[in-house]
Structure prediction request, 97 residues.
Amino acid sequence: MEGLSFSGQYTPVEKTFSTVGPILGKEAIQKSLLSIILVILAIVLFIAFAFRKVSRPISSWIYGLVTILARCTTSWYLRVYLLSSGISMDLKLTLCL
Prediction:
């Protein structure tokens, strides 16, 4: 609070206070998971479209699935490495990986 009051010259006043209830949190989690699924689907479709002319001997949509699988395994290996190195990860870093 000292930093907010400019060395005691001003007194900070809390005008509003809000919390996120369990129902709102559950709704946010559901919407986040839906968004993640839609983004993964969009990536698979985009890569399938980009590789549509390179369909021999593998179908083009498999390239998209392999891309998602490679992304997941890479982030998993990175998490394991960071945790085994003793580097602590906060929630923000975990979500980014």
